[in-house]
Amino acid sequence: MADSTYAVQAHGLVKTYPRGGSGGTPVEAVRGVDLEVADGETFGFLGPNGAGKTTTIAMLCALAVPTAGRAWVHGADVATEAGLVRQRVGHLFQTSSLDDGMTARQNLYVHARLYGLSRRYAHRRVARLLELAGVAERARQPVRTYSGGMRRRLEIARGLLHHPRVLFLDEPTVGLDPHARAQTWEHLNSLPGRRRTTLFVTTHYLDEAENCDRIAIIDQGRIVVSGTPDRLKAAIGRDQLHLRTDDNAAVWEVARNIPELREALTAQGPSGASDPAKSVAPPGGEGVTLRVREASAWLPRLCAALAQRGVTVYAATATPPTLDDVFFHHTGRSISVDSMAASALGGPVEAPPPGGREKPS
Ligand SMILES: Nc1ncnc2c1ncn2[C@@H]1O[C@H](COP(=O)(O)OP(=O)(O)OP(=O)(O)O)[C@@H](O)[C@H]1O
């Protein structure tokens, strides 16, 4: 079953924490995950908090024992060849595990020795990675004096010390400001020999998932869909048409009175209501979002029809599907209020339509 041409493989991976829930009830953190990650790929594991991302990578790194299912890293079984798996993987934890009182050099050197690098090679390798992390000049200063971005780069360096074939990064940019987040990704993408190491990145940031060759979306312990970000978005088909007007309720009526547009659209009001009578926007409200194929082609016609009806349009945008739309399409929920996609739209996080979520395609 194991195919060593894959960097990571998992079949039916399950993890149940026997007494993790309130009142000591079992928590099914991971409920049957199948994965195939190609060698050299940047693979994104996208999901909201509590979806099961950390638990999955803990099993893939042989740090947690699966309740059921099997997984391999370059053909090494996480259950029966844990030592081999640990040699093949590097791991960046969600919270910093650097020793604040030690210098950057000491942090890396201790780690290198723990991984069995000889003294001489450890010194060479540490110097090289401090250089790569862009912290060589501050290498003799305690880590507590470092910025968040520097710490992250140093942790990436530490994860790479023993030449792992797969580097697992659990929410690598959480807590960083947007500039430091972008820098961290630039750093990851420009690592020498980048394609010789597979990157397996968990994230709940939609823009971060866009950096990945392929992603799997996980929700409530199950993978709901996987593929390249472009393919997943294209499969949704519908763009978002967002309008802010002085009579948002009229938008629905007008849109539905254009027969071809009525065919093409599925609509959502400010609170997810699909009934126009219930979708009157509050004063200063967020507007109306219509999901429609080829939104930009409809925009002029809809605006003209609204003008004819005496409705003033303050703002109108057509946006191609985002990964948040992909998440919504498959789960009926938005991944996060503060995601880049939601803030770019300036709109609310959309609730599922009252008739339930659309059927996954
Ligand atoms: N050691 C544990 N004991 C009991 N329950 C746990 C344990 N670790 C995680 N869980 C539970 O398992 C579920 C999945 O958690 P996990 O940390 O894997 O999710 P996540 O997607 O990584 O979320 P986050 O990004 O918030 O860490 C959650 O309900 C969590 O409370």
Automatic annotation (TrEMBL):
Residues 267-286 are annotated as: Disordered. Residues 8-245 form the ABC transporter domain. It is a peripheral membrane protein. InterPro entries: AAA+_ATPase, ABC_transporter-like_ATP-bd, ABC_transporter-like_CS, ABC_transporter_ATP-binding, P-loop_NTPase. Pfam families: ABC_tran. It is found in: Cell membrane. PROSITE patterns: ABC_TRANSPORTER_1, ABC_TRANSPORTER_2. SUPFAM superfamilies: P-loop containing nucleoside triphosphate hydrolases. GO terms for molecular function: ATP binding. Keywords: Antibiotic resistance, ATP-binding, Nucleotide-binding, Transport. Belongs to the ABC transporter superfamily. This is ATP-binding cassette domain-containing protein.
